[in-house]
Amino acid sequence: MEGSSILALSNLLKDSQYEADKKYKKEENSYNPGLIGDKKKKTTTIEDIVSEHNKNKKKINKNDIWNDDDVDEEFIEEDPRTEPEYDLIYRQKVTTEDIYLGMSGKTPGFQDCDEMVITVKLPGVKKISDIELTVYENKIDVKTSTYRLNLPLPKPILENDGNAKWKKDKSELVLNLPLKKEFSF
Hints:
single chain, 185 residues, alpha+beta, Immunoglobulin-like, 2 domains, 3-stranded antiparallel sheet, 3 helices, 24% helix, DNAAF6, CS domain-containing protein, dynein intermediate chain binding, CS_dom
């Protein structure tokens, strides 16, 4: 091969390499994530997203202790009856070993409590037979002709092992509900 033919071949290959690079760059620029999906859709800007978010955003009160998303809708029922006052406390069974020696490893926190005590004040109710009580694992439902308490519980309970006591002189229903134990191994 002569030098001129090598030079011509080199120019021929150089031109074809240049054309291949040019074609590759054109293809590279023509395909991008913006081409995926519906081509008729307009481009969404940050302002569009913010305005849509503000439009859908509900007014939040600083005094609220939870958002609307935190409330389970299955517990909410519309009822014209008044919700009675109630107190919810945790009770822990302790022995002298717990108090003086700390042998059981129990802490004063609610995570080591054994039962939940709910006192429902029902003024005007005279007889226990006027009260309808339903206990579920995660809620209680107390109904009378004038009161309705549909209370979601903060911790699951053993629904079949609790007891209820009617204090006639104070018109109070006291529920002792044992908590389901969560083992922390």
